[in-house]
Design brief:
This protein is of the alpha/beta class and about 325 residues long. It folds into two domains: about 100 residues, no CATH class; about 170 residues, 3-Layer(aba) Sandwich (Rossmann fold), CATH 3.40.50. α5 links the parallel β3 and β4. The two termini are about 30 Å apart. Bound molecules: S-adenosylmethionine (SAM). S-adenosylmethionine binds next to β4.
């Protein structure tokens, strides 16, 4: 396995990342209302906490998509319409621990398909864990990992005419507002060729009693996950957030299908972020918006797709119809 991060060294990558992190935290905390981007959840602790979240009884999303990948693997592959002699690149955006994807990879290898697996993730730690797991479980798999923000790595696929299948699982698209999601899918398509495939896993709109606990579990793992963002800013940007003064505050509206996570300031407080050289004042009850997790139905999804260069081919659902993997084809 090799990385395709251009010629940048580990320390170049680290300093590029830190510059962006400072800028994003500064932009977010200087905006009104205050925000912080969810992609920074995933440091080593965040990756571990997310694996714990995926295993929580309340977090139905992973189990539903895992059911699709385990019980309908053949169906999924047949939807791709690939001949075994047609080489292709299997690209996964925000690959995480690859626990669902391995089912697909294994079956593709058994069927004798000729492909490379290209996991893309912003977390070096997640990519390393995935590399180790695949080397052990599927040593024959050809892997080309790419570390970076998926917006940044999309362009590296441009101009290559090999057939591509892009996986975007776990309802990661739901972390973007609809307009941004359309734009993202369009930009992805602009780097692909007609006939290329996007397999996009999305969570479906459901009652609050089912959705909200997935973002507010009884053991406080989702709270730790959200608060870990402040810990990371303390450690990497020299801030002095006192975690005892903050709480996890998620919401969900069944009407709009949108879940949001916030960090709530429990007191009036001032926080200094050394890396930015600025004090920030938070009033008691003030919220920092950290994540959006949009839920979909056919109408919302088709509306998002209508502004892009993809068309809808089909969808595969789990037995409870909580989750759907949509198969979209580049026009
Ligand atoms: C919610 S996890 C889902 C992982 C996997 N797709 C799944 O379905 O289980 C999100 C993953 O995407 C990565 N990620 C989040 N934002 C990203 C971004 N902007 N660019 C690249 N990777 C990102 C995180 O590091 C994490 O591994």
């Amino acid at each position: 396995m090799h990385t395709t991060d251009g010629n940048l060294t580990e320390s170049d990558l680290r300093s590029k990342f830190l510059q962006q992190f400072k800028k994003d935290v500064s932009d977010g905390l200087n905006s009104d209302p205050k925000t912080l981007p969810s992609k920074y959840f995933y440091d080593e602790t965040g990756d571990d906490l997310f694996v714990q979240i995926m295993n929580m009884p309340e977090y139905y999303l992973t189990r539903c998509e895992m059911e699709i990948f385990t019980e309908q693997t053949e169906h999924l592959i047949n939807e791709f319409d690939l001949n075994t002699d047609e080489p292709f690149e299997l690209i996964e955006l925000g690959a995480g621990d690859g626990s669902k994807t391995i089912k697909l990879l294994q079956r593709l290898l058994e069927r004798g398909h000729n492909f490379h697996y290209n996991p893309v993730d912003i977390s070096a730690n997640a990519l390393q864990g995935l590399e180790d797991m695949l080397a052990e479980k599927l040593p024959e798999l050809k892997v080309k990992k790419q570390r970076g923000d998926y917006f940044g790595v999309l362009s590296s696929f441009k101009g290559d005419t090999t057939k591509k299948v892009v996986l975007f699982l776990g309802s990661n698209i739901g972390n973007m507002r609809d307009e941004k999601a359309s734009d993202f899918i369009y930009r992805l398509g602009a780097n692909l060729n007609p006939g290329d495939i996007l397999l996009m896993g999305v969570d479906l709109i459901k009652p609050t009693e089912i959705v909200l606990p997935a973002y507010n579990d009884s053991n406080g793992i989702t709270a730790k996950f959200n608060l870990n963002l402040l810990k990371r800013i303390n450690r990497e940007l020299g801030a002095n957030f006192d975690l005892d003064n903050w709480s996890h505050a998620p919401t969900y509206s069944e009407e709009t299908g949108i879940a949001k996570s916030f960090l709530r300031s429990d007191v009036d407080q001032e926080v200094y972020v050394e890396g930015i050289g600025q004090d920030f004042f938070f009033e008691e009850g003030e919220l920092i918006h950290t994540e959006i997790s949009r839920k979909y139905n056919d109408e919302i999804l088709k509306d998002i797709i209508s502004d892009t260069n993809f068309y809808y081919k089909s969808k595969i659902q789990d037995s409870r119809k909580f989750f759907a993997d949509y198969i979209l084809i580049r026009k």
